[in-house]
Amino acid sequence: MGALGEALTAGINVVPFTWAASPAATEREIVVVDWLGKALHLPKSLLFEGGGVTLLGTSSEAILCVLVAARDRKLAEVGEGRVGHLVVYCSDQTHFAFRKAAHVAGIGNENSCAIPAGSQDMYALPPAMLEATMKADAEAGMTPLFLCASIGTAATTAVDSIHELCAVASPHGVWVHVDAAYAGSALICPVFRHLVNGVEDVDSLSMNPHKWLLSNNDCCALWLKQPSALVAALGTDDDVILKDTAATADDGMLVDYKDWQISLTRRFRALKVWLVLRGYGTDGLRDVVRAHVRMAAAFQDMVGADARFEVVAPRVFSLVCFRLRRPTMTTTLPEDNELNRRLLAEVNATGEGPYMSCAVVGGAYVLRFAVGSTLTEERHVRDAWKVVQEHATLILASSMQNMHA
Amino acid sequence: MGALGEALTAGINVVPFTWAASPAATEREIVVVDWLGKALHLPKSLLFEGGGVTLLGTSSEAILCVLVAARDRKLAEVGEGRVGHLVVYCSDQTHFAFRKAAHVAGIGNENSCAIPAGSQDMYALPPAMLEATMKADAEAGMTPLFLCASIGTAATTAVDSIHELCAVASPHGVWVHVDAAYAGSALICPVFRHLVNGVEDVDSLSMNPHKWLLSNNDCCALWLKQPSALVAALGTDDDVILKDTAATADDGMLVDYKDWQISLTRRFRALKVWLVLRGYGTDGLRDVVRAHVRMAAAFQDMVGADARFEVVAPRVFSLVCFRLRRPTMTTTLPEDNELNRRLLAEVNATGEGPYMSCAVVGGAYVLRFAVGSTLTEERHVRDAWKVVQEHATLILASSMQNMHA
């Protein structure tokens, strides 16, 4: 459905950069992202009614856009000369796209603060630590600017506590953005809604329907409270060609999406999301997400039932992070990591079998098993686990042999 | 062919963000952009052999990427603290994407210098003025950073003199980028090659095959001399997931395109360009460009043969800028502009007829007639001119009537 949408989009090749350039595509985009926001249980303040909605290409792009909006809003308040004093915050589990966006926007690396989020916090950003850091920065004469919280971090899908983080950030006038690139899709199921408690207080939230809602790459939905801040930062009526058209003679009542993003040109991404929403329906998409979560839970149970393995971070969505336990108490962490690295390489080398990825979490090398494809069935998950077990047996045997040799 | 490429891309949905994620797509991209560069007669220093090549979405994105690369390279030389002293240059005819990119990258609007390029310079950036401005800035303690030159400006397709501008910029260690978004395609014809004389000296050049080389939106090819500067600015090995994969264990010999752009994810745009290049061949594309230029020249001749009209800027490619002359010596420029505005509105309102755009050049409202579609034939051009003439007759008659009333 997503691919069909892309193919149709290619065929009509419309460029909705101003409302006038394609009223139908612009309005369709508003309606579709609004639908999606409602399906994900987002509050009115982030929907078209109370805020603004758009489709960009990627989360990186969305984060850069809102960061520049926040930067300009803050500088208008504290003065242009303070740009070197702005500080942005995230956890060390936040996707690197955020630090990259801050760098592009001219926030020095030394003003980009990544707060450690360890296993004791289930890899979520600890609000107390954020509070202490922001307080210390403010006392040192710095200006807290922006917080990027995550619903579903990249490595372990950890969930930051939006409510508590907003309570910390709000007194400093900090723009809070929620990066829900992958896990935002899960919010379509009411059972996950509590994970974004407090979302009424955030300034913006982005997620990628191309990750888990069956829409083709690229596709990132962005909802934000104050689109005027975005347009103030990225809008322009400098264009010698557009200047005199109907699109700019609308007294600001119409949405010209060129002013909501980095580029002038843009793709009609709403068509594929519309096809997916109409084709599957909210219930159909819920079924897809639920089935994936159920299969990941089953995989987690299988890992837990094998004493040679441990589940490294608590599974929340459809990703399981696991690794081989230390085979003996005498092996070192680097040796353990090497065993797990070998295990992943051999599992992936089977070719016909499952494909897993890896991450380094708290120094430990972990294997990541994700369910996200429409074609995955329970038997595939069982087979994948069997492949892991077989290779683990071989690796552990040869490892013991080496130790006794 | 471009649309077919998009549809195929959607079907395979591959994401060549690292070499390892899709070696075939990454290598295909290198080969295709290299072919294209050779077809456009670009020098070796900008091709894969001596520089670097990539496909991004838009010119805005390309300009932002190289600007950040230039910024970081310069700051490494002069010190991070000098960021507020960096100055970027363009002409007042340069696409607004450049000033927007500078703003996003944290270059204050007051440090973004647009040099007037008037009719006496055929709307090209006057090198002497740039020289005086850069000299004055350097003497005032500022640091000249970046020049965005244009081959084919947005309003009138004016062509900046690359050779002379590089000679001015080079002593200041300024990064010179050439924005050839639309007119870059014309370089496929040897007859236009002289327009980029001196291109050996630029640091980067971008153009959009989606504008005039039959590739679907979005598609921007970027060639640059020093890709290591781009990777230094936009690259990262912070990713907890990618950190441990083969892609980053290559000693920098492989191209990970995620490090050449703002976003992590990206589309396999090379497929559509490949289909276009293979389907039409260089000769076929030359024929397309030549036919469009010939039709635009014919339109220009028709405008020139009607004394009521004037051609506002010399036509270089396939765009003709024209307007109604003052009907009497007593009308004011705003009145003249209003007549031309009415003319454009009425021509476009015919619906079935031609669609033209407008620009304001040196205060004068001009109509822009562009040939760029594969389906345009000479009879369409003749018909378009007839429509313009008919409406001009009616408008001028009613205007004279009003004056005598």
UniProtKB/TrEMBL annotation, chains A, B:
**Might you name a Gene Ontology BP term for this protein?**
carboxylic acid metabolic process
Q: Which Gene3D superfamilies match?
A: Aspartate Aminotransferase, domain 1, Type I PLP-dependent aspartate aminotransferase-like (Major domain)
Give cofactor(s), names only: pyridoxal 5'-phosphate
Signal peptide positions on this chain: none
InterPro entries reported for this sequence? Aromatic_deC, PyrdxlP-dep_de-COase, PyrdxlP-dep_Trfase, PyrdxlP-dep_Trfase_major, PyrdxlP-dep_Trfase_small
Q: Which UniProt keywords apply?
A: Decarboxylase, Lyase, Pyridoxal phosphate
One MF term in the entry's GO annotations: pyridoxal phosphate binding
Q: Does the entry feature the keyword Lyase, yes or no?
A: yes
The superkingdom listed in its UniProt entry is Eukaryota
Give one Pfam hit by family name.
Pyridoxal_deC
Sites of N6-(pyridoxal phosphate)lysine modification:
K211
State any GO CC term: cytoplasm
Membership in a protein family: Belongs to the group II decarboxylase family.
| The name this protein goes by in its record | Tyrosine decarboxylase 1
Which species is listed as the source? Answer: Aegilops tauschii subsp. strangulata (Goatgrass)
